[in-house]
Design brief:
This protein is mainly β and 118 residues long. The chain has no helices and 11 strands.
């Protein structure tokens, strides 16, 4: 059974940094994309950053210039380096995995809380 385990969340002051990690396990193959989403209080879940199997990267406008997504294919791990954090970045951050090549299976992590104090 595929599992996604996120780590690296926590409480940080505005202007600080955090690095989130997400490890996929349980028979994952042919990863198509690994993304980071977030859900801010009272808001819908939104895509923050995405990286595909060919290395194509996209960011939400709010993340551009501050966040960096990267992946280690050998470890089925995706990272999100978050710098210059703002209070409005406070959210639960979720890892999303699309895998299995043309079968396009999908899995979500359980989320990790990021809180940025002003």
């Amino acid at each position: 059974q595929v599992q996604l385990v996120e780590s690296g969340g926590g409480l940080v002051q505005a202007g600080g940094s955090l690095r989130l990690s997400c490890v996929a396990s349980g028979g994952v193959f042919a990863v198509n994309a690994m993304n980071w989403w977030r859900q801010r209080p009272g808001k819908q879940r939104e895509l923050v950053a995405a990286i595909t199997s060919d290395g194509t990267i996209n960011y939400d406008d709010s993340a551009k210039g501050r966040f960096t997504i990267s992946r280690d294919n050998a470890k089925n791990t995706v990272y999100l380096q978050m710098n210059s954090l703002k209070p409005e970045d406070t959210a639960v951050y979720y890892c999303y995995l699309n895998w299995g090549g043309p079968f396009r299976y999908s899995n979500w992590g359980t989320g990790t809380q990021v809180t940025v104090s002003s």
